[in-house]
Inverse folding.
DNA sequence: AATGAATGAGGATTCATTCAT
DNA sequence: GATGAATGAATCCTCATTCAT
């Protein structure tokens, strides 16, 4: 029973299903059929809307990135000083909307996907660029030339915590946040 | 051209080929045939020696872990003070034997494999436990109760750098080492 | 050329093809591809509808059994006295619908399959139980306590004739029927 | 450690192992490797002695037939009258040496093999011919022209009991013998 | 819009067979 | 005589993708 205006609903359902399936499988070895079934549609429809499996995956990656960006933006909106802004970025990174097992699993898998997919690599570069520029922008005033290295450390620490904590059964966003905030303190206090 | 005592040679060749293929593909979507071909044998032989694809993958993971362990051990052998030991562990982590694109790619893929394979999860746990205990052992004297969190940060930073730098075309082990050593300084100097 | 409601048609075609292939090969060493090709579909479709080779085989066995059962039922419908009923069961066993080379070959192969497949064993048990109870029910009035042994003999004779005559190029159902009817006479006349 | 005069020992061991494996698997889907392993030799040796898998199978079939023949011969040696001879043949058919689960399973499988192997068909024909002529020879004096049909019935009954009883976990040769002897009585008493 | 039918390529795995030693 | 190394063909099965309806 085809209906009008179903497209955005179907796309969203399929993207959610994709992330859920990846989270469930722990890998990108996910079949279009399973994704479609979880979304409550036929596999044919998934192709109809997205074109192919790769496009579904990319769309899901884009979605994860968008949610993350929005989280960062909304956190940043309430920050005023550089220090607050930095902490906002960190907190956003481990906010519940991102730091759920399924999402993290999908996210890490997309990280790897970037090794074999140009489009995924491009998306990943955008994420990295944004995180880096966010950190850098607010570290430069305090740290000057040592800001890039410090930003790199914080960024890597965040990614590392995704890898280490995000993949566990019950990731603790607050604990992860605390770890990074402490590292941030170190970076900002211990100036060269 | 059957010869005697080929088993260890074949196994080593197949494991190397596995890592190379994973590195090349950037994922675990690697066929046994390709691995075998790269190792210069038939796919049947790969099964003969390992039993199945999963076993090949696990054997490769075990190999990566073993190489890493040996690198750490050999670095630790030349260290005396706790600080030297900590730096040794860090340096070992980014030593050329581990920090090659292929190896890092394989390593990160194994990290993910642990999400869907119990055996891989077990191996990963061993790695994590060892790294953690190495760091902890030499941080405790200086940091006391805040050692665990500090160790966690350093470990996550290392993993994050694997993810961020190791997957690039030409990973720079020295740069990564420098980043962690600085973080280590922060941790050790800025005591609570 | 996808159409709707093809499932029952495909299933039937695949089951027929399975029996024909088994008959042709004389063994269960039949590939799914050949079955599918004979049925005019791809091998993928065979899996799609049945799940796997074993399921195809079992479905074919079930089909053979069902055809047999229906033959017996339709023969029994026209019988009134115990003697007529017994003869009806015998005649049904060698009716053309069952006693065709392909079918008999498949049947005997299924007999053996029961040695290695629990599900096949279960199906076989049903067949045996039914044949036995049919014979027993109509022998008991005449033979009393010696009915079970007599029924066993008739049942074994039927199976033996399947083995001996059914596997020949041109099985003669009438001859086989005559042999069993004579044995039946012996059983019923020569009472203890 | 090659030794001299091992051939007959190896051949016998391999044939025994073949029958055991077929009995165990319940089908001819038995690998040469398993047969060889059970016989305590390498798979290469099995080929060396027999040429190929088919030859191993046929050798095993021949062996089963030979054992059966010898059993019949030895039973016949002690019989004098036609009736005794007939009973001797029946008893031989269910003697422990033939009527063991493994052997019966192999035997029935060989029966089927005859459908796809000319050589197996030839061997089977020999068995049938011998059984038939044994029965016929001693029935003709009593039954005259109806001897062939009677012999056919007894032979089919024997085969049917192989199929029905021989494949069960604990075949009861005595029970099977009793069933056939009773049928034999019927045949001989109830003359036309 | 949506489905289910259908395909076919690709991959893991098994195994008979061969051969150097 | 005997082994184990090695191959490659064969087979089951999965799955992305296409298409008529």
């Amino acid at each position: 029973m085809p209906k009008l205006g179903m497209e955005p609903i179907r796309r969203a359902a399929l993207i959610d299903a994709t992330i859920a399936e990846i989270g469930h499988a722990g890998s990108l070895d996910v079949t279009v059929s399973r994704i479609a079934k979880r979304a409550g549609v036929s596999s044919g429809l998934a192709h109809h809307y997205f074109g192919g499996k790769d496009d579904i995956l990319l769309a899901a990656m884009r979605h994860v990135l968008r949610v993350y960006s929005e989280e960062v933006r909304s956190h940043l909106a309430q920050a005023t000083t550089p220090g607050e802004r930095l902490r906002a970025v960190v907190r956003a990174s481990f906010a519940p909307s991102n730091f759920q097992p399924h999402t993290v699993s999908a996210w890490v898998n997309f990280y790897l996907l970037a090794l074999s997919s140009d489009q995924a690599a491009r998306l990943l570069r955008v994420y990295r660029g944004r995180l880096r520029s966010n950190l850098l922008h607010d570290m430069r005033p305090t740290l000057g030339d040592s800001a890039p290295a410090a930003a790199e450390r914080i960024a890597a620490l965040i990614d590392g915590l995704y890898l280490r904590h995000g993949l566990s059964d019950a990731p603790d966003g607050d604990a992860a946040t605390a770890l990074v905030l402490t590292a941030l303190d170190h970076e900002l206090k211990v100036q060269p």
Observations:
- Residues 31-33, 43-44, 47, 52-53 of chain A lie near DNA strand F (CB under 10 Å from a C1').
- The mean pLDDT of chain A is 92.
